[in-house]
Every structure is written in C-alpha cells, then in structure tokens.
Amino acid sequence: MKMLEEKILAEGKAMGEDILKVDSFVNHQVDPVLMQQIGTAFADHFKDKGVTKVVTIESSGIAPALMTALALNVPMVILKKQPSKVLNDDLYQTVVTSFTKGTSYELTLSQKFINESDHVLIIDDFLANGEAATGAIRLIRLAHATVAGVGILIEKSFQPGRQKLNDQGFEVYSLARVAKLEKDFISFIPEDSDDN
Ligand code: G4P
After folding, report:
1. pLDDT tens per residue across span 159-181
2. In testing the pocket of ligand 1, which one of 100, 108, 152, 178 has its CB within 8 Å of the most ligand atoms?
3. pTM
4. Apex 68 CA angle, 4 and 97, nearest 5
5. How many whole angstroms from 22 Cα to the centroid of ligand 1?
6. How many Cα atoms are found within 13 Å in the side-chain-facing hemisphere of 192?
C-alpha cells in the first residue's frame, strides 16, 4: 500500500536491523486518515471471504482493526493481554511469548464473543516471529471458529512470521513488507509480489 510505505519512509525509524519505530502514526500517536485507508484496503481484499468478526490483539492493532470492521460491517473483538492466568470458566486463554519483547502473557478471549459460527479475520500492526498471531489462532480454535485470514500493516519479511502462518495453511496479506532494515535505510518487497 503506497500510502503506508510512504509514511514509513517519511516517519519510520530503523532501530538497528531488527526494529522499526513507527510511534508517530501507529504505536503511540495514531493517524486516523491512514487507519481509515488501511481499513478500506483490508476490507477490499477480504470482502468475499465471509468474515463475521475482526479480531485483534491489544493495543496497537485496535485502530486498524476497528476501521476494517467498520468497512466490512462486522463487530471487532479485542484479545486482551493478562500478565498471568485468570481463573474464570468463561474465558479462553493461551500463553504467548514475544521474542521481540522478551515477555510472556496470557492472551484472553471471552467465550461470549466468538463461537462456532464465526469466520474470523485477524488484524495486527506488526508481524515479526508470528507468536502473537499464532496465539490468536489458538484462541479462535478453542472457540471452534474458523480463520478467514491474517491482515498485517507492517510485515518484517526477514523474520519467520509469514512462513510460520503459511505453513499452518493461513493466508497472510500485508500492506507493507519490509525486506531490509538498516540505519537510515528501509526497503520493501514490491506490492505486486506473488506471495502476498
Ligand atoms: P514476536 O513473535 O517476535 O513476539 O513478534 P510479534 O509479531 O508477536 O510481536 C510482538 C510485539 O512486538 C507486538 O507488540 C509487535 O507489534 C511488536 N513488534 C515486533 N516487531 C516490531 C517492530 O519492528 N517495531 C515495532 N514498533 N513493534 C514491533 P505488542 O506486544 O502486541 O504491543 P502493542 O504495540 O500492540 O501494544
């Protein structure tokens, strides 16, 4: 998505070779016009997939997920992060370990909001090692729902997240695919690449 790539080039900062800082429009301050365009792009791509709910992981996935849900005219559900297991029969929970942040948390979903009739689109801001998306898929399966696909704003294509999700049979559609990060240099995989 041209608009997102241009924004990354204009305002993104490569923190070494691994981390891309996008605090001014995704992770801290949020650009609503960009988020609306992102929602339209995801809705356009997944419009024929029978999506009944959009699911995201708090917190930075919420803005693009909400815009996508609005464009698809379906509800959005937020998977919550709890520091430790909560004893509650009405919750599905799974442990997610983030290699990027070196932390673990319980990803949590209330049984009220997803069930076996749902076909779920997962939206998140970053795809790195894919641990968060894989945890979200585990919760959706616990709820006996199915996964329509995974929509990502910024995929770090030099990390194994996409491969991990594709290997499990899930479609990954990313709006910006970062091929390489270096100090003052960010390159992308072209938009019309066959494997997106
Ligand atoms: P992982 O398997 O390496 O842990 O990667 P995952 O895709 O699960 O991402 C873990 C967390 O790290 C996510 O944030 C993700 O957005 C963030 N992250 C990964 N790579 C980058 C990066 O290059 N830049 C930035 N800005 N963030 C990155 P989170 O813990 O879910 O937090 P939140 O921002 O959604 O609150």
Report:
1. 999 999 999 999 999 999 999 99
2. 100
3. 0.96
4. 80
5. 11
6. 0
